[in-house]
């Protein structure tokens, strides 16, 4: 064999080796890319986006943690006032499950065909939170000079507060007048009411009993004849691409585990 033939043979062998290495690397990369894409796709298919009102954040987070463990999925929570969440939904925000602290808003998104139906998720009542020694009983919020903070009726807690005040007005117009005269502000949402009382800008505020228990403030019960039964709701979005997983989450809300979580948080 001539030197030229040896050289050609050597070049051909080198080209063959390089081709084999390139093929191996390509296959390895393709498998890695496919695996990565598949995992990303599975992760996307196993993620639920929940719209959750401020007042339900803590309890829904506990429920979500439990559901994630059982279903090996991911849950993302978008937390705000119910009225804010509705606005976001109308603006095109992605959502699989919608929680509402107010029947007005869950009815609205049902009428606009965002959901087909909904169910009652939890129940509670109202209570007075206080940062002042002057407020130890319900009647104290009617005393002259007491600063009372409530929420604006646009928010769920504000709407429920108005129902409570309407019952006071029907039962005792004089008491209602005194309480009304002590209202110094109507806040945008329940967290604002609690913060105002904590900052001692108000002596007392009207909130959900469940939030009162988590507020680390003094709690003053509202008499049954004035108090109201508060309902929170939940529904699956028609546009959800994870309809099966979303329905499994709704079914999970009726489980004994969730009922125990709700009870420990003070819900009925």
Automatic annotation (TrEMBL):
Signal sequence interval, chain numbering: none
Domain of life: Bacteria
Family: Belongs to the bacterial solute-binding protein ModA family.
Keywords assigned: Metal-binding, Signal
Protein species of origin: Caldicellulosiruptor morganii
Gene field: modA
Protein name from the UniProt record: Molybdate ABC transporter substrate-binding protein
